[in-house]
What does this fold into?
Amino acid sequence: MSDLLMQINPGLFIIAAGMLCALVPLHAVRKAVMIVAPIVAAYFLFQGYSSGTGLAGELTIAGIDLTTYRLDRLSLIWGYVFCFAGLLNGIFAFHEKAHISDASALIYTGAGLGAVMAGDLLTLFLFWELTAVSSVFLVWAGGPRAYGAGLRYLGMHVLSGVLLLAGAIMYQRYSGTFFFDGNEIGLGVPGGWLMLLGIGIKAGFPLLHTWIQDAYPKASVTGTVVLATFSTKMAIYALARGFAGEEILIYIGAIMTLFPVFFAVIENDLRKVLAYSLNNQLGFMVCGIGVGTAMAMNGVAGQVVLHVIFKALLFMSMGAVLHRVGTAKASELGGLFRTMPWTTVACLIGAASIAAFPLFAAFVTKAMIIAAVFEEHHYIVYLCLLFASAGVMEHSGIKVPYFAFFSHDSGKRPKEAPWNMLLAMGLASLFCIVLAWPWGGYQMLYNLMPDVAAAGEYVPYTVNHVITQLQLLFAAMFAFALLKRLKVYPPERRAQILDFDWFWRRPAVSVLKWLDVMGARVEAYGGHAVKRGVSGVQRKLFEIFSPAGAMSAEAPSGIASVLTAAILAAALALVYFVG
Amino acid sequence: MSEHHDAPVDNDDIHPVSKKFLWLANPKVKNNFIWFTVAGLILTVLIGYFFPTKHPAPWEFGVLYAISFGVIGFVAYSIVVFSAWPLFKWLSRPEDYYGESDDGDQDV
It folds into this structure.
């Protein structure tokens, strides 16, 4: 029996738990399931890796060989941190009586875990789409104001999946298999660019990133914490698995580290600031994948682990503020350390971790990525990463804790966060410190990295590294204090800050409305001839794209359609039962 | 931008743990925080001078290796902050610009 269970992708256990949550009306039972399910999945990962599972869950459907479960060092580290994040989310949301959110959070967690454990592109695609369908409910849990953002979120994610599938089918035609492993994909194979674009949407590539800042701050208090973990890191995994060493990623990553810094400084909503900060941190990871050396890939894997934890910690602290105060706008906050001391400490630990202070989380792993960039002589990119590190200090290291908990006294005296939120933040804080601890702490993280031997060669706690990093951070803090004293630091003001999504939320919508009006006029004047032309185009499209059409003649797209339909049916069933 | 003022401290409202840290809100502490950063900067420059990096970057010639990270940190931070003024002018719009409420209010 246990041998059989070892053959099953553990993401499916959590998805099954999510389905169960959708049917269970008892709050306590649902919450217990939310906490236990990730622990069980982590247990199966541990047992599976210890017994050398490797590739498992091999199926043949409609002549297509699928490898639904792959457990190696790269997927293992992602798997563990996804399970840990699931546990944190379960604890953090313990107080919340939200039937739909509980189910969708678990299904989303399971889909994320399933995706990083997928051995082939088709299985990856299925879980990829399931993350989109399940997580949109977490966005909508933010209330009516999140409805539009949820639709845009869903649109971007479905587009991402479609591009991934299109690329995967092209790759399958070329290689004869959907199976993929280290650097077998790349940009040199048919479909490589399509897959990179699809993955790039989820990874928050420049210009494709806006769904993160649009949806995450509008989601519910607990929803944002869940959302911030899986989709983007799943995309980083797909890049690490298929595109390591692609040089273009170095430059894409460098741009990703830079541009969010400039948006974050003018943004008033502190959860949106953290969403930009998320983009910036993803840039470090993408950059490391582009370098692709053993040290860089270790740095990326380690950074993913720590980023999941400290970003969850920061979102949890701002979530606690939002839960108690009712807003996360910097202009409305200040002085909350008076009544929320433990939340303040948690936020400060998260801030120190993301800013890479010695003894705190990112000090080890971010330095590995930057050192790998330096070793490969990408000096301009190296400078960009140092610039971005000072930027991280600005928005996440100083701005978020300062304006929420210190700054002026807003006069607000909220209660401290509920015990479960404090417990989740405490657990995350503990790991932020333990995994960067010089004496046996970061070595635990090293033991999980893809290349343990290479990881052991990098010694983070040298006098030079500690001093240079502290110098950078002290200089940034000095600049903050000086600019504040000179009253040059910009005040926090309520506003909508335009980002690249303006192009499709304003001009593109206007063009579509104009086309709609013009179409109606042409139809009114053109009459029969126009209608005949339109129906001719529709008939042609049906001949090509329908299930019996030319594009579906090949088995891969046919089976993919069936599987996609199955996922959508499952989602509909979920909504039906939950609703 | 909403106006704020430091509210008088009513110790009854303060969390017991926070009572030991109310000095953080003291204007003198806030004003003198800058000297803490100056001290940290000087200390790291001095120690950095005696512990040069094994692989200096191309721009770390002469004794610049001892201050290069400080210069990068200060300049980068200042660029980001100074850029905020024109960027806010260029990119900010009223909160209801897209016709969607974006007030961030949630259930308390």
About this structure: The two ends of chain B are 23 Å apart (CA to CA). Chain B is about 45% helix and 0% strand. Residues 25 and 55 of chain B are 43 Å apart (CA to CA).
